[in-house]
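Could you help me review a protein record that somebody else here produced? What it holds is a sequence and that sequence's fold in token form. I need someone to confirm that the token line plausibly describes how this chain folds. Take the sequence as given and treat only the tokens as open to question. This is what I was given:
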Amino acid sequence: MSYSPPATTLKSDPTYPLNRQMQGLMTNQTLLATLFLLMHVPLAMLIIRVPTVALVHAVAIFSLGVWWAFFQTRLERVAWISGYIVGSEVLWRMMRTGVFWEFGKYAVIILFVLALIKTRRLRGPITAFLFFCCLLPSIVLPMSSVDSVTMLGDLRFYLSGPLALTVCVWFFSHVKFNTTDRQMLYYSILGPVISLSFITLTGIMTADRLRFSNNSNYATSGGFGPNQVSATLGLGILIAFLATTDRTIKPVMRVFMFVIMLFVATQCAMTFSRGGLYMAAGAMVVATLYMMRNRKHLVQLACAIFLLAVSVNFLLLPRLDEFTGGALTKRFSDTRLTGRDRIAEADLRAFWENPVFGVGPGQGRVYRKDIYESIAAHTEFSRLLAEHGLFGLVALILLFIMTFQHMSQVRTARDKAFNASFITWAFLFMLVSAMRLAAPAFAFGLTAATMTDDEEIENVDTVV
């Protein structure tokens, strides 16, 4: 007579209570995350009706960040609130209610430095510090040609981006993200991006008359700079894509993220500023190439890409093209650089004529005005050469060294996709819009964090 051992029921498993508890926790987190994201729709409506709310919103978020920096030992929470600031920066700027222009960058810098000092984590990557130090010698050059007020304004504006990048790399080098932390970061940035999307949608729906041409459209961008609105929405598209393809997120939430991605992409396209979609698309392609190394991820990744392609080609593009009278297709079929090549040419001319120290922060506008009617820098890489000379070239080399370091410190295919996508997005932003926002500095610095996901050993760079 053979002996059959008693069947082990699920409830006899000693880990069953823990598993049930974790499932309940994940369900609660999903519900809270959904409510958090949805509440940014009425927030957008309130800000439209009472623009002063944007100022209160900015002060409240920054105050909460200061509180967390002082009284929370986990740096991850400071990262979440700073990510929220990054997603809100354009939202606060466009309301013009007293939030000074560079608030986003300096708010992130202050919160990160406070948190590092409070936790006594003062050591950081030497390459990041050297990167910023390379930009200091040229600050003495404008002293003889411009007044002190103009010079201080130039330094505050043109060095804020590199300073933010340095501080972000320094801060995130001390941060360890687990799966939940990363999801919370996604939601923190996406919340205000949803508000921004609804503000642009409201502007379109309430406009008396919309005219579409082959240029960026202020009316469909919430009445603000289309380049900045488009870039921020592009970051939201990338984050929603990463969340959609993240197997650790519950399926229902991933479907919600897919819907958000399509909605934000629609609003991004309607700005008629091509940069946001191009940045998001470039970063998503790079992320996909790394995700394909994970065999277990292939089916879900293929489904997500298939649904995205079908939705865009057969649902979004035909409707949007009909709404704009064919102007959208013409705009995104246009391959002209809209003068950015001539602006970069002016920067290179300044570099050749002043190769050692450059012309000084902010002084590249003289050369740009001679060659092109615009005086604003659009490409951070050429601006560093023009305004900082050979020291700017060294800074660029250090930037690429940091890129290699950040990519080499992660092992899993998913983490490599995460880092590569944010690095790509940050570089594309700097190529198109210099460092006008805190977003590229934050995105690049984010890749210095340590990832502690519960990835299985098979996921480590498994090449198909």
The mean pLDDT is 87.
